[in-house]
Sequence to fold (421 residues):
Amino acid sequence: MSAPTSDAVLQRLMSLHPKVIDLTLDRMERLLAALGHPERDLPPVVHVAGTNGKGSTIAMMRAGLESAGQRVSVYTSPHLARFHERIRLPDGLIGEADLMALLEECEAVNGGAPITYFEITTCAAFLAFARTPADYLLLEVGLGGRLDATNVVDRPALSIITPVSLDHQQFLGERVEQIAGEKAGILKRGVPAVIARQSDAARAVIEARAEAVGAPLTIGGQDWDVYEDQGRLAFFDQDGLLDLPMPNLIGAHQVQNAGTALAGLRMLGFDEAACEAAVTRAEWPARMQRLRHGPLVEAAGDRDLWLDGGHNVAAGEALAEALGRLPARPLHVICGMMNTKDAKGFLTPLARIAGSLQAVAVPGEANAADPEALAAAASEQGMEAAVAPGVASAVDAAPPDARLLICGSLYLAGYVLRENG
Fold:
């Protein structure tokens, strides 16, 4: 008989609650109390909410902090290839044996009580972080903020809200003001917060919440700003001007993400060297990532192959802008999405630069969008569209002279990274 694995435990944990998402803090507070309140023993926390840019901002902050000799733990979600990616400790991703032990500890203490998969795995992550010495914990919100499982941390060192836009409306509300209110729920009394540039509507909600709870804000476009200047990155705040290289992560949107990360590092007291490392050493897979090795790359031949997990309207705009900066070449899109996403909104900006699309199902996902519906949405935007049985066959059948973009879902991106080795 084969030895049990963390995957088997994770599969069991999925059955503890009938809903994948059920926003409340009650179950978290119950289990954390039974575990001895590990959330009270965490390293200094940088808590990051927002619609887009959370992962890139965290990646840049991690690069900056580590360059300054800091030991950094990181919590992000979802994972791409394997669950272990969600829990990064100062010496690397959590090991299989340690993950198994933590999951089984949480499972035993929970005693079969209802709790969502994200909640109980977040409790396991908090145990790992509380038991592993570090100088900082970069903690990404899973969904929303106010009622997210990570929002049990009473007093982080710093809060960050990246750009807020429409996404997850079925959980957070149909209007950007409602979504901003949920994101602003991470703000805590007396805890400084860095706010990325926002729409007027989102910023007004965040500012009102900050005033209500007494959280001092540092706001993009007001207290700090960032922009590209003659191929360099210019950042300034009350402490002065930084003249830095452009971010190594591709796309104009990464300029704004860099500004948010730099503002965060400056708030924490780090110097220009840490800020330069933040923009030049960050690594973040499946965000305008060019694939250079593996069977899919071999199948693509002379066609360059790109991967991105973005899946909402703002991500579509950012992708179109980033691809538009590359050397001219016909763009062919291979797209798979979840059925909860706005396919038309995501594809509209891409249709301005892409002539053709193949729609695929996201493998192994019950809520994957119907490829026929995705192809119809692409056709409505003026793209030549077809359905492919899978990513590999889509790459094989793509136009011979095209640039290939695989996009539409982090779940699809994770599948591609696994299959491509």
Remarks:
- The first helix runs from residue 6 to 13.
- DSSP finds 16 helices and 17 strands in the chain.
- The mean pLDDT is 93.
- Residues 36 and 297 are 48 Å apart (CA to CA).
